[in-house]
Amino acid sequence: KRLQAEARQLAKDHVQALAAAIINAEALAAEIAEGGDAYPPGIRDLARRFAEDAEAKVQTLEAIAART
């Protein structure tokens, strides 16, 4: 039982680390999206779309993790 509890905690820690990484990537993507002509238009657009979608992905991760 102790090993199962440790495995569950490790899994929760991984999910939290993933959420934090997505949040960091979202901030970087937002900077690129607003970077003007320093970045090619296709990259700015992709970064903008990623930044828009990232928050929803984090909320989904957290909601699923909360059910377990």
List key phrases describing it.
single chain; mainly alpha; elongated; 68 residues
Question: What report would you give on this structure?
Answer:
There is one protein chain. The chain has 68 residues and is mostly helical. Helices cover 87% and strands 0% of the residues. It is built from 2 helices and no strands. Helix 1 (2-33) packs antiparallel against helix 2. The longest helix has 32 residues, at 2-33. The radius of gyration is 16 Å and the shape is elongated. The two termini are 16 Å apart. The model has no long low-confidence stretch (mean pLDDT 93).
Number of helices: 2
Q: Given the C-alpha coordinates, what overall shape results?
A: elongated
Order of helices and strands: HH
Strand content: under 5%
Binned, the helix content reads: over 70%
Low-confidence parts? none
Task: Compute the CA-based radius of gyration.
Answer: 16 Å
Strand element count: 0
The termini sit apart by 16 Å
Oligomer: single chain
Mean pLDDT rating: 93
Decide which structural class fits the backbone: mainly alpha
In short:
The chain has 68 residues and is an all-alpha fold. Helix content is 87%, strand content 0%.
Which secondary structure elements does this structure contain, and how are they paired or packed?
Blueprint: H1 2-33, H2 41-67
